[in-house]
Design a protein that fits this description.
This protein has 426 residues and is α/β, with parallel strands linked by helices. The chain contains 15 helices and 17 strands. It folds into 2 domains: 273 residues, UDP-N-acetylmuramoyl-L-alanine:D-glutamate ligase; 130 residues, Mur ligase, C-terminal domain (Protein-Tyrosine Phosphatase, Chain A), CATH 3.90.190. It has an 8-stranded mixed sheet, with helices on both faces.
Length: 426
């Protein structure tokens, strides 16, 4: 149990938490956020600021951007979701979680403001982050989008640059049934007259280009206006050259890099160079961010490797499978999987079926869950041995009885719970 969440329960229990309730339609807009930002005594929003949206890679991009800011000798404020270990990690300044007393004080202030509709959990946390970052005079505020973009609480905050990482079919019941429709919901993180950076291609990129043209925003595309070349991996990480909008080229070294982290590094570096042009961009080496449950690698007592990853979409799980093959060529992995309800889990798990020696399926706690027995039937029908565990603890015990590498994936809730169990037993 998270002690911070327990202490704040009297406040948080008043709030609708759509992360856990998982609505099948959008039930929020920006009106409440804007009203709360104008409440008496509210501090001005922190600037400069960068907003990061997209289907996957948001958290990695934000974390790398925060580390680039720290490497320049200045202080980032990083707002993220979901949390893995504690609610406090959603609001971080210079790499440190917000103090529970400060969060309690700010939330009381936020919730005391009269509004037509009470803020949701995510809106209240976003408002708390804005006030915390302003109080602590951060040098760059970094906002990770929660869901979509057009109506996300972070889109009520002013920013100086925006990033759209990738677009996949996800949250289709809320965002739309096609890549183009989802891109249409995420593209508005690029503000009128602003500047955007994206790693998207195909139909998603076409939508983002059209949006930027309509709102007179600049757009820089990974692979066209900036990117990576001469990339090579060795035992220590990834090295190569990162080229920026305008043509400047910088050598980079990202220690212990996963291949799917490199586009995030390029996006973060390009945004940094635009928003903080007078600050040094230090890329050799890049300060390694802590990325809990994002291909988080742990050594097991029996010498095997255990990977914790919250990936839950087809493309993100394809990236996990590719990284497993790169690190352990010729070996198949054993998986512990689960899925929150309403996800496209069949499409997602199809991405790792060929990489699996065997699978353990379990329910996800903390939110509504897909039936683990149905997931097990899916894998078995594909020729992958799959058993069912009663909960994450039982699933982790079963996983650790099997050969490695071992992977916990399919949900941040599951990967986070496994992480807490591992830490408690260490």
């Amino acid at each position: 149990m998270d002690p911070a969440a327990e202490r704040l329960a009297p406040l948080l229990s008043q709030l609708v938490n759509y992360e856990r309730a998982r609505p099948d339609a959008r039930l929020w807009d920006l009106a409440t956020m804007r009203a709360c930002l104008q409440r008496p005594g509210a501090l001005p929003c922190p600037r400069p600021a960068v907003q990061v949206g997209g289907s996957k890679g948001k958290g990695t991009t934000c974390a790398l951007l925060a580390r680039l800011v720290q490497a320049a000798g200045i202080r980032p404020g990083f707002y993220s979701s979901p949390h893995v270990t504690t609610l406090l990690e959603r609001i971080r300044v210079d790499g440190r979680d917000i103090a529970v007393g400060d969060l309690e004080r700010i939330l009381r202030d936020v919730l005391a403001a009269p509004t037509e509709r009470a803020p949701t959990f995510f809106e209240a946390m976003t408002l708390a982050a804005a006030q915390s970052f302003r109080e602590q005079a951060v040098d760059l505020a970094i906002w990770e989008v929660g869901l979509g973009g057009r109506h996300d609480a972070t889109s009520a905050l002013p920013v100086d640059a925006s990033i759209v990482t990738t677009i996949e079919l996800e949250h289709t019941d809320v965002l739309g049934a096609t890549i183009a429709a989802i891109a249409g919901e995420k593209a508005p993180v690029v503000r009128p007259g602003g500047v955007g950076f994206t790693g998207c291609g195909g139909a998603a990129l076409a939508v983002i280009r059209a949006h930027c043209a309509a709102v007179a925003a600049e757009l820089f595309v990974l692979g066209e206006h900036f990117g990576l070349r001469d990339v090579r991996f060795d035992a220590d990480g990834a090295r190569g050259v990162l080229w920026l909008p305008g043509g400047a080229a910088r050598p980079f070294f990202l220690p212990d890099a996963a291949a799917f982290e490199l586009p995030a590094l390029a996006l973060a570096a390009a945004a940094f160079a635009r928003v903080l042009p007078e600050r040094p961009l230090r890329l050799d080496p890049v300060l390694r961010p802590e990325l809990p449950c994002r291909f988080e690698l742990r050594a097991e007592p029996d010498g095997e490797a255990l990977v914790l990853d919250g990936a839950h979409t087809e493309q993100s799980l394809l990236a996990v499978a590719a990284e497993l093959r790169r690190r352990w060529p010729g070996r198949k992995a054993t998986f512990l999987v689960g899925s929150a309800a309403g996800k496209r889990w069949r499409e997602a798990f199809s991405a790792v079926a060929d990489a699996a020696d065997s699978v353990v399926a379990t329910a996800v706690s903390g939110t509504t869950s897909e039936d683990a027995a149905v997931i097990a039937t899916y894998f078995s029908a594909r020729g992958v041995p799959c058993s069912v565990a009663a909960d994450a603890a039982a699933g982790l015990r079963e996983l650790r009885r099997r050969p490695g590498p071992r992977v916990v994936t399919g949900s941040f809730y599951l990967a986070g719970e496994a992480r807490r169990l591992l830490d408690a037993s260490a």
